[in-house]
Design the sequence.
């Protein structure tokens, strides 16, 4: 059995295909409890429950990384709906299914964030404009403190355009946030939302190749949430 990792893995360190999303976690559940439960299904590499910086309480969801993708699939099947503190946890693959989803590129950068703004607040604010394809991400330092910026990804450019128009310059807590399309990860300095991405997204829509918000559904939200 592997020993419990106390440092949350970075996005590049975590094996996304072997990582499970766990939602509907009771306030009294700890990282160690999740570890002890999930290790019954296979070798666990990491457990991470994002915490509120001030109260250090988790936010009702988290991630568990297994040694292999096969271990993660098995754990998702046997651990889903297991009760902890009387609440059935929801367990599914953190990475969206490649056969059901595409990444349209409607990814936003949200900057100048107040230190008190967390992932839950970003979700509550931005999901009003459309379906998110993954939980919002806030960049955090080694102590899990916010670095003052984060990312939000929508399933359509109609939603991301509306979010930019409505939220850029708006106050979240005590600071006016900046909202714009995020830079692409290829390092060429180009931002998402260009004409090429929009044409591809339109083509996918015409072919009924929809983007699924599986992670949001696993968090207990109704399918219509966000519309």
Sequence:
């Amino acid at each position: 059995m592997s020993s419990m990792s106390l440092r949350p893995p970075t996005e590049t360190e975590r094996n996304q295909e072997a990582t499970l999303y766990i939602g509907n976690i009771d306030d009294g559940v700890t990282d160690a409890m999740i570890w002890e439960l999930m290790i019954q299904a296979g070798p666990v590499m990491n457990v991470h429950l994002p915490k509120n910086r001030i109260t250090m309480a988790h936010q009702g969801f988290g991630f568990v990384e297994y040694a292999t993708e096969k271990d993660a699939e098995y754990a998702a099947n046997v651990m889903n709906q297991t009760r902890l503190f009387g609440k059935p946890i929801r367990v599914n693959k953190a990475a969206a299914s490649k056969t059901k989803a595409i990444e349209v590129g409607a990814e936003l950068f949200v900057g100048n964030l107040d230190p008190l703004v967390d992932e839950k607040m970003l979700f509550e604010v931005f999901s009003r404009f459309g379906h998110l394809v993954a939980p919002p991400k806030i960049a955090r330092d080694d102590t899990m403190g916010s670095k003052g910026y984060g990312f939000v990804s929508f399933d359509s450019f109609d939603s991301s355009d509306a979010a930019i128009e409505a939220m850029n310059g708006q106050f979240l807590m005590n600071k006016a946030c900046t909202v714009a399309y995020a830079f692409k990860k290829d390092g060429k300095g180009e931002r998402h939302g260009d004409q090429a991405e929009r044409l591809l997204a339109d083509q996918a829509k015409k072919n009924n190749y929809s983007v699924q918000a599986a992670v949001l559904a696993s968090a207990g939200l109704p399918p219509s949430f966000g519309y």
